Amino acid sequence: MRWVDRGLEPAGVTEYARQYTQGWIDYFQNGVGERPTDFLWVLFRPTMGSRTNNICWYCERQCDADAESGGLASTVDHFRPRSRFPQLAYEWTNWVYSCHACNVENKGDLWPDSGYVDPCATDVAERPDRYFDYDAQTGEIIPKSGLTPDARQKALHTINDLGWNKLDVMFYRIDQTRTFTADLLALPTGDRQALIALFTEQPVEYAGAIGMVAEQLRQAGRI
Ligand SMILES: [Zn+2]
Q: CA dist 222 to 49, 147, 192, Å?
């Protein structure tokens, strides 16, 4: 996971929030009425996706803009789920651009006591790079060492509930990071920083994981 600047709230969100939030509160909190059928956050999905070239803000895989559902179809996740936080149904800062697998198949309505690591955290100390590391031996995303017990729980829940170490996600990530490492080490020393920048400073698949690999290579004195 790599920090994403969600950008300013687009025009229209406030008005939808005013019109439709109460229906979600009534249904989930007050037990009144039918489940609402407004899903107007999807109107803002392209704007959100454009922030990262349609890469999922959670697992860093490229979403498939043409897919209707399943796997890598693009969705808008409610970071704090609507079922527990209906007042945030139309809250711009609660929306995360996400692949179907992360949002629907894995995260669903879960919300652990620790919460999850927010890909768009405004507080620098809460951003993803504080929480995660990459295990180059196994290819797993792991909690960073030295975290407090609470922060470690938050990192573990995020990793496990979003399925980041499931085989299909992990194998492709291993492939990408190994290719990056081989390409990097094959370059003359003076050209390496430019390749690192290309893969970490803009939204490409697994930019977060690749950034961690580059940092490990730097610390090991290999680059
Ligand atoms: Zn995803």
A: 35, 26, 11
Q: Please, which pLDDT band fits residue 92 given cuts at 50, 70 and 90?
A: very high
Ligand 1 centroid from CA 186, angstroms: 30
Average pLDDT over residues 193-206: 94
Ligand 1 mean position, distance from CA 120 (Å): 15
Do 90 and 41 form a contact (C-beta atoms < 8 A)?
Answer: yes
- 152 sits in which H/E element: helix 149-161
C-alpha to C-alpha distance for 187 and 184, rounded to whole angstroms: 5
Written as six digits, the tokens of 105 are 């198949």
CA of 146 to the centre of ligand 1 (A): 26
- 105: CA distance to ligand 1 center in Å? 10
69 pLDDT higher than 90: no
